[in-house]
Write a structure and sequence with these properties.
This protein is an alpha/beta fold. It has 4 domains: 6-126, Response regulator (Rossmann fold); 147-316, 3-Layer(aba) Sandwich (Rossmann fold), CATH 3.40.50; 320-393, Helicase, Ruva Protein, domain 3, CATH 1.10.8.60; 401-451, Homeodomain-like (Arc Repressor Mutant, subunit A, Orthogonal Bundle). It is built from 19 helices and 16 strands. A 5-stranded parallel β-sheet has the order 2-1-3-4-5, with helices on both faces. A 5-stranded parallel β-sheet has the order 7-10-13-6-14. The termini are far apart. Mean pLDDT is 86; it is low at 396-406 and 453-459.
Amino acid sequence: MSQKPSVLVVDDESGILDTLRILLRNEGFEVTTAQGGKAGLEQIRAGVHDIILSDVRMPQVSGLDILTAAREQDPMTPVLLMTAQASLQSAISAVNQGAFYYIQKPFSNDELVAILKRACEFRAVRVENKQLKQEIRRRDKAAVTRPIGKSKRFMEVLKLAEHVSPTESTVLIQGESGTGKEVIARYIHNLSNRVDGPFLSINCGALPENLLESELFGHVKGSFTGAVRDKQGLFAAARGGSFFLDEVGEMPPSLQVKLLRVLQEREAIPVGAVEAIPVDVRIIAATNRDLEEEIRRGNFRSDLFYRLNVIALNLPPLRDRRDDLLLLIENFLQSLSQETGGDIKALSSEALDAVMVYEWPGNVRELENALEHAVVLSRGNLIEGSALPERITKRRKEPLVAERSYRNPTLEVIERAYIMWVLQAEGGNKTRAAEVLGIDPSTLYRKLSRYEEQVEVKA
């Protein structure tokens, strides 16, 4: 709430408005007046007021209409109703509909000011409670839904996402297909001040242009063949929340113009409509395309790119975050066991070797699907390599080190010979070998994948 509490006074009598304006300003309030209910509705839509004081009996638009509009705009705004023809029944009805107080004319100045001050305190407490609840909810959700990973590049992305989440800035998430762009978008929403609002999403490349336009912006009855009724668009449905535009790089040029208007003017025009509707959403966009290259090719608007690219998050592919593989495998296997109701299965040494050295062009999504495939085909609790998709277990054959001759060995050859010597000395145990070498096990797996040595792993 502002330093000076703002009050909107609505009455159809100008004399009462002038009197209340002078009184309340002298008492330290910031006062806005509206003569008549229609003008009151316009003031409510135009801005946020800490308190609303309205007459009940007015032509065309009554005080109860003002109450309804105020609660739709901001449920925490106290609304005081005043009337010269009060009754117990009408007072009870007004309070049941959400009025903070029902005061009968004529009233004393002291009585009115005291009620308004209580209304200020009431609003301040409600605002503070809402903020505390949002903060608690953000922390709880962050603990539950925090994306899995510990690699340096992935942690940098998470820290930036956490930093920008409480803001209203538009976020553009870039990365290959399957890297978890929607997971990061949901994480940002769960940490934001909009956590109580909806999280809606749409894949911009999954629908034809006319259907995508209707889904995004809505349409009015009769705007095209088959439009038998008004339809609310997703921008309107996501009011107060976050809207995730996946694969925004595939949006047709004509819709890019309309999206640009949403970002600039914070309003959208439904298909076939002449009046714009306000847009109150935070936009999070994602793409697997190089949008700057698409701009050079003429496929994407540069002005839209700069509007979307306020905060840029670049998700690394899974092949660049090998340190996260074991964490992801453990999490997916645990989730699959919960879905199937069985015991948690584990990968055999052979299967783990194959998973660790595979390049994962489909990223996290491909890993999850491969593990589900393996769990379904494995009868016991140990997943053998044969249960994995063939593309993962099929390896490229290369000559062994001993079969190659080097007049002047390279550093890589010497490193390889040393690694194989340590591995042999540790009886094929890769975990212990990695400790001796002073490297991460995932790094050892990557090096061995290049050597293509068939090493028997000690159980």
